[in-house]
């Protein structure tokens, strides 16, 4: 016979509040418990597995993915649920690859030369575009996005780019299509502009540490998902 738990028993085991348990039930992400003759909720080992899985998935993937995953399980779609979390892991892997490339590129940009050419203290937008291998219109767009802030010539007001800003352009050019760029690259580029390449490298290394911690939490969530599927005899 399955063990019976009170709401406070589940809450204490998982470090949650009893009101949180009721919220999850109202969202439809965990099955409703039976009631005692006096109307109190009665949870089973299966409910405990649902709540464990929800908490772990939320920690690794966020509440939306956690809820979507468990709703799929409630209709017996274990394979779809697993593909859903796998998709999130694939995105995290892309983030890591982009962050790795960012760090490598930043390490290469610490010198005052580019491909053996000594960089001038100031460059026109045309010169910067040619060195970076991008169109001047792209540089103007990144300026509008707040990624680059060129100085202006006191003589004619034209844009002038420093070697540091050229490195920013190279960094944006390399990583602009990646998920990491969309989510976190602006912070790295701005850090590079305000505090230099060394601090941008440290920022990227911090991002890699964050990604590393997240993959560990995700695997804990996947472990609880497998345990729940076995409890439900879905695998």
Written description of the protein model:
By secondary structure, the protein is mainly alpha-helical. The chain folds into two domains: 7-86 and 218-231, Multidrug-efflux Transporter Regulator, Chain: A, Domain 2 (Orthogonal Bundle), CATH 1.10.1660.10; 90-214, Orthogonal Bundle (Multidrug-efflux Transporter Regulator, Chain: A, Domain 2). The protein contains ten helices and six strands. The strands form three sheets. A two-stranded antiparallel sheet has the order 1-2. The longest helix has 35 residues, at 197-231. The protein is elongated, with a radius of gyration of 26 Å.
What order do the helices and strands come in, and which of them pair?
Elements: H1 7-14, H2 18-27, E1 34-35, E2 41-42, H3 45-61, H4 63-74, H5 78-108, E3 113-114, E4 117-118, H6 125-132, H7 136-144, E5 151-152, E6 159-160, H8 163-175, H9 179-195, H10 197-231
Antiparallel strand pairs: 1-2, 3-4, 5-6
Helix pairs in contact: 3-4, 3-10, 4-5, 5-8, 5-10, 6-8, 8-9, 9-10
Q: Quickly give the structural class.
A: mainly alpha
Which CATH C-level class of the largest domain is it?
Mainly Alpha
Domain unit count: 2
Q: Could you say which overall geometry the principal axes of the C-alpha atoms support?
A: elongated
Query: What is the CA–CA distance across the termini?
Result: 22 Å
Residue windows where pLDDT falls under 50 for at least 5 positions:
none
Major sheet: arrangement of strands: 1-2
Number of separate helices:
10
The average pLDDT score comes to 84
Order of helices and strands: HHEEHHHEEHHEEHHH
CATH architecture type of the largest domain: Orthogonal Bundle
Count all strands and give the number: 6
């Amino acid at each position: 016979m399955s063990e019976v738990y009170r709401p406070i028993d589940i809450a204490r085991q998982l470090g949650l509040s009893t009101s949180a348990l009721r919220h999850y039930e109202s969202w439809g992400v965990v099955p409703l418990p039976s009631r005692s003759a006096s109307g109190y909720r009665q949870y089973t080992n299966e409910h405990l597995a649902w709540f464990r899985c929800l908490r772990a998935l939320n920690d690794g993937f966020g509440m939306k993915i956690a809820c979507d995953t468990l709703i799929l399980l409630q209709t017996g779609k274990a394979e779809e649920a697993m593909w859903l979390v796998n998709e999130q892991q694939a995105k995290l892997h892309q983030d890591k690859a982009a962050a790795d490339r960012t760090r490598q590129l930043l390490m290469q940009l610490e010198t005052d030369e580019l491909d053996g050419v000594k960089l001038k203290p100031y460059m026109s937008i045309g010169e910067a575009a040619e060195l970076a291998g991008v169109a001047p219109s792209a540089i103007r767009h990144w300026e509008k996005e707040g990624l680059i802030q060129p100085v202006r010539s006191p003589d004619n007001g034209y844009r002038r780019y420093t070697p540091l800003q050229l490195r920013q352009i190279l960094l944006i050019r390399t990583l602009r299509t990646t998920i990491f760029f969309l989510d976190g690259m602006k912070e790295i580029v701005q850090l590079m502009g305000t505090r230099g390449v060394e601090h941008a490298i440290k920022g990227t290394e911090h991002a890699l540490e964050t990604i590393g911690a997240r993959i560990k939490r995700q695997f804990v969530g996947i472990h609880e998902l497998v345990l729940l599927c076995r409890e439900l005899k879905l695998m």
